[in-house]
Design brief:
Layout: H1 8-11, H2 13-18, E1 25-28, E2 32-33, E3 36-37, E4 41-44, H3 46-57, H4 70-81, H5 91-105, H6 111-117, H7 120-134
Antiparallel strand pairs: 1-4, 2-3
Amino acid sequence: MQPPPDMAPLLAYGAVFADPDFTFGAWSGGGTEAGVMQSPYYAFSEGGLGFIEAVVSANWVRPEIDWSSDGLRQSYQHMITTPMAIETASQDDMAHLLTTLVRGDRFNEGMLAQAFNDGTLARIVARAVALAERG
C-alpha cells in the first residue's frame, strides 16, 4: 500500500499558477506536410511537467482508484462543476480528482490543459493550502 499523499509539493504551485506569465503548455502539431497529417497534441511546459511529476511522486495519483468507473466519473463531474465542491474537498477527494486528471489525460489529450485553463488545478492547489494551514 502506498503512503498517504504528501501535501507539500502541491503548496508551491499556488504562487506558480497565480503568476500571469506561467504557461502550462500549448497545443502543437495538427499540420500536414508532404501529404502526411500529424495529429495535434498538447506539449506541456517545464512547469506543467513539473506539476505532473510533483503530483505523481507525492502519491496523489493512486493505483487503487478506478478513475474510469461510472461512479467516479460522475463524482469528478460533480466536483468540477459544483460551486465550493473542491473548496470543501477532503484529501481523499483531491486524490480522486488528481488521479482522474493525470490518468485521464493519457486517454483524453488536453484534459489537464483544460483543468488548468478553467481554474480547476488552481482550486485544487488552493484547497491543499487551506488543508495544510488547518494542520
